[in-house]
Design goal:
Serine Threonine Protein Phosphatase 5, Tetratricopeptide repeat; 13 helices; 71% helix; elongated
């Protein structure tokens, strides 16, 4: 009986490997056939597209945002279905403070691929942090769509917490920030904003613990400047073509690296009072 079962397993595995090989071979042959059917003009277009795209990438990594934007546009004129092209062009417009153009790029990306979570996350960030396009309802919808597509990212969770915070729903906001902090131990934003909630609820000791975590994560030897390391991430790092954070909270977060350990409680009180004023200003936009 055991021999029969073993033989059946071996046969099944062999059949699976054979089917996989046949499929890969067929796909490869189809791709080669497709390439061979291209005209010289079509091949030249593909070569030119990648030349523009690679140049745009180099410019982006060197943080030459305006020149990178031009090259991404040239590339997209040759292939307007390239998802990364639209994504990064939107990022370049964000750097150049051309927010409406950035929104158009990410919306175009969603039209190409409705499952692109990065595009929804960028739109959510835009609707929270931009005065012209400020819309918490749109931001929340974009956050939830991004999370539905990719539950592993912490960025949309952080942004959803910020939506709740601005609305004044501190309990919901606290849950979101704690979720981010649990999976991303270097999230300056989540520690800082979670601490504010305890401060607002007059739980100063708990607030100070969160605030100290934010300070530790914001130290120059851990993070530098106000560069976002990657999509879905809330930690920061300098360079590498990263997009500068446009968060309305960033000026306050930048001050954390200079907080003196001897005056932490005093600095926390001062900062959270400033944050309280900022949140009231943001909340007034909803009314």
């Amino acid at each position: 009986m055991k021999k029969i079962v073993l033989s059946a397993c071996v046969l099944f595995i062999g059949l699976f490997i054979f089917i996989t090989w046949v499929k890969k071979t067929a796909d490869s042959e189809l791709l080669q056939t497709s390439k061979s059917n291209l005209t010289k003009a079509q091949k030249d277009t593909i070569v030119q597209f990648w030349a523009f795209y690679k140049e745009a990438t180099t410019l982006r990594l060197n943080e030459q945002w305006d020149h990178a934007a031009e090259k991404y546009k040239e590339a997209l004129l040759l292939d307007n279905t390239h998802e990364d092209g639209w994504y990064y062009l939107g990022n370049m417009y964000l750097e150049l403070d051309q927010y409406i153009d950035a929104e158009k790029c990410w919306k175009q990306l969603i039209q190409l691929n409705s499952k692109n979570s990065r595009a929804y996350m960028q739109l959510a960030d835009l609707y929270i942090n931009n005065g012209v396009l400020f819309d918490l309802d749109k931001a929340e919808q974009a956050c939830r769509t991004s999370l539905k597509i990719n539950k592993e990212e912490t960025g949309p969770v952080q942004l959803l917490g910020e939506v709740h915070l601005i609305r004044g729903d501190l309990e919901q906001a606290a849950r979101q920030f704690e979720s981010v902090a649990a999976s991303n131990f270097k999230s300056v934003d989540s520690y800082y904003l979670r601490g504010y909630i305890d401060w607002k609820n007059d739980q100063k000791s708990k607030a100070l613990n969160w605030y100290k975590k934010a300070i530790q994560s914001a130290q120059p030897n851990t993070h530098v400047s106000d560069k976002v390391l990657g999509e879905g991430d809330t930690k920061t790092v300098k360079g590498f073509g990263s997009v500068t954070s446009k968060s309305v909270f960033q000026p306050l977060l930048n001050e954390l690296a200079t907080v003196s350990s001897s005056n932490t409680a005093v600095d926390m009180e001062k900062q959270y009072q400033e944050l309280d004023i900022l949140l009231n200003q943001l909340k007034s936009r909803i009314l």
